[in-house]
Amino acid sequence: MSPQTSLYAQRRARLASSLGVGGIAIIPTAPERPRNRDTDFLYRHDSYFYYLTGFTEPGACLVISHDGRSTLFCQPKDLEREIWDGYRLGPVAAPAALGVDAAHSITDLDAKLPRLLENRSCVWYPFAIHSGLAARVEGWLNTVRARVRYGAMCPAEQNDLCTPLDEMRLVKDAHEQDTMRRASAISAQAHIRAMQRSARMLRAGEDVREYHLDAELLHAFREAGSQYPAYGSIVAAGANACVLHYQAAAAPVRNGELVLIDAGCELDGYASDITRTFPANGTFTGPQRALYDLVLASQDAAVAATKAGARFNDPHDATVAVLAQGMLDLGLLDKNKVGTAQDVIDKRAYFQFYMHRTGHWLGMDVHDCGSYVEPGEVGQVSERKDPLSGETITNRPSRVLRPGMVLTIEPGIYVRPAEGVPEQFHNIGIRIEDDAIVTETGCELITRGVPVKADEIEALMRA
Ligand code: GLY
Ligand code: MN
Ligand code: MN
Predict the structure, then answer these.
(1) Catalytic residues
(2) What is the C-alpha separation between 192 and 222, in angstroms, rounded?
(3) Residue whose CA is closest, atom 3 of ligand 1?
(4) How far is the CA of 364 from the centre of ligand 1 (A)?
(5) How far away, in angstroms, is 43 Cα from ligand 3 center?
(6) The overall pTM is greater than 0.70
(7) DSSP designation for 230
(8) What pLDDT does 1 receive?
């Protein structure tokens, strides 16, 4: 078995050991999805399936039983389909190539799966991920039930396979961390390209559009071997940066405005997720710089709070403390009306300008799986009244960070014009986002191949 193949075999063995005696797991890959008429979206495998196989073909399903035996159903060899659509591994070659114990054609799934489920006590599959899967499991179980008179036993329990798999995926192993470092390095270079293109075109007096910068990102991703962007790139010029889920469009990139780019590539199944905000022409104005430095200071505080043993919420709380004070100091919030920084936090007054969380898990999926609540403490419920909505919020202790967890750290400030908000800050949107691997003593920022300090961004854009 190659080192790569044995990595997936080890993951399957770990999962098998968590299924309990008599457990069996079914993990399909993602379906192909039509885009229009007879054309599909670019295919992307299912992350859980890939985590256990490293196999990227569509039309596949993995079955793992508690004793560690794995069976793969995959597309059969078919010369005509391979001429049109490309190479298929096929069930004969699959055991040697992927280290599974047995393989069959996916066309035999309905015929063979009930036999695999017979005499098991519990079926595990990912709940609410694959539309139609629950109904198919029901059908397979009905086929088993039809045989109980002949002595077959039908599984009486069904469990969500996401629960053990999410826990496994939450802590990234050395191979995953290495892939994520490489994805981040590619994305960092892409951001540098986009920044420099913006300044270069504006200096030359050209008409710069958001799509010019998006094109730089895509070029850099593919040039370095990334398969595709990990999510729809946000390239937001000027006031568009205040739209949190804006996508790269055709708006002009103007002298004197900021550009917010939130973009990262996917490499070999793993996402990166970087945001940089920079002056379109390479030089921050005074008000832009004041807000930028505040967001960066809040990110520094969050980075310092990210370490093994800390809670997932700690970086967010550290960010908010810095932003709250800064919003008062810069006059975004009126001290006479809101009070102290603690009042800003208690009343959630910062929410007018900072309305998202400071991070999320990152891995194969950009918003990766994994519970944000510490599993051993789910029973420790506390309630509080939200100061803005008046709703009762139920809190549970947030996740304790462990080495190998990967999360983003992405504070921001988004200033929509409003009464009492100094005009010099109107329509400025800033976010700074880096990806962090938690270590024993702190965290490793894997996205700093692109500068983040205002002076360094200006120097880079002059180059
Ligand atoms: N790019 C998506 C996010 O930052 O969450
Ligand atoms: Mn993010
Ligand atoms: Mn992002």
Answers:
(1) 38, 245, 262, 273, 356, 360, 367, 410, 414, 431, 433
(2) 15
(3) 273
(4) 13
(5) 22
(6) yes
(7) S
(8) 77
Q: Determine the residue type at 47.
A: S
Per DSSP, 272 falls in state -
* pLDDT tens by residue, 406-439: 999 999 999 999 999 999 999 999 999 999 999 9
Neighbours of 175 (CB within 10 A): 14
Q: Report yes or no: 114 and 143 within 8 Å, Cβ to Cβ.
A: yes
CA 231 to ligand 1 centroid distance, Å:
8
Per residue in 25-80, pLDDT (tens digit) is 999 999 999 999 999 999 999 999 999 999 999 999 999 999 999 999 999 999 99
Is the Cβ–Cβ distance between 380 and 397 less than 8 Å? yes
Q: Which residues of 65-104 are buried (b: 16+ CB within 10 A; e: fewer)?
A: bbeeebbbbbbbeeeeeeeeeeebbbbeebeebbbbeebb
Quick one: pLDDT at residue 257?
Answer: 98
Domains located in the chain, CATH noted: 3-168 (3.40.350.10), 171-462 (3.90.230.10)
The answer to whether the Cα torsion of 37, 40, 46, 50 is positive or negative is positive
CA distances from 81 to 37, 44, 88, 194 (A): 19, 19, 9, 40
Edge to edge, what strands does the sheet with 434-438 contain? 406-409, 434-438, 443-445
For ligand 1, say whether the CB of 231 is within 6 Å of any of its atoms: yes
Q: How far apart are CA 231 and CA 195, in angstroms?
A: 19
Q: Which of 228, 215, 200 is closest to 461 using CA atoms?
A: 200
DSSP string, 252-317: B--TT-EEEEEE-EEETTEE--EEEEEETTS---HHHHHHHHHHHHHHHHHHHT-STTSBTHHHHH
Nearest ligand 1 atom, CA 367: 5
Using CA atoms, how far apart are residues 190 and 266, in angstroms rounded to an integer? 13
Pairing of strands 157-160, 122-125: parallel
Which amino acid, 189?
Q
**Average pLDDT of 351-359?**
98
